[in-house]
Amino acid sequence: MLLLGSVHGASVASVRSSATTSIKLVQWNPHWQCWGNSSCTSNAAAALTTLLTTKQLDFANVIELEAPFPVPHGWAALGAYDSCGGK
């Protein structure tokens, strides 16, 4: 069973099977335009930190994260970010 929802504008899914295992994941795209606006940047970073630290997620896929982000304890970033916004 795949359950979908939304938290802070991010798509959240929980995958469950008939077994007792579930996987909670989020995919979020704050868009590259946000990173040129300091208010948007700080709000997006705060929202992402909240998602990662309060929702007991197993995986997070964040797209178009155009600014360095201090990854919360217990999380790791895979790969470097690349910019496509106006470059």
Please tell me about this protein's structure.
With 87 residues, the chain is of the alpha+beta class. The chain has one domain. The protein has 1 helix and 4 strands. It has one helix spanning 38-54, and strands at 2-7, 10-16, 22-28, 59-62. A 4-stranded mixed beta sheet has the order 1-2-3-4, with no helix packed on it. The longest helix has 17 residues, at 38-54. The protein is elongated, with a radius of gyration of 14 Å. The mean pLDDT is 77.
What is the C-alpha radius of gyration, as a whole number of Å?
14 Å
Q: What's the number of helices?
A: 1
Strand content: 25-35%
Q: What is the N-to-C succession of helices and strands? A: EEEHE
- Total number of domains: 1
Q: Total number of β-strand segments?
A: 4
Output the structural class: alpha+beta
Q: State the end-to-end distance.
A: 41 Å
User: Order of strands side by side in the largest beta sheet?
Assistant: 1-2-3-4
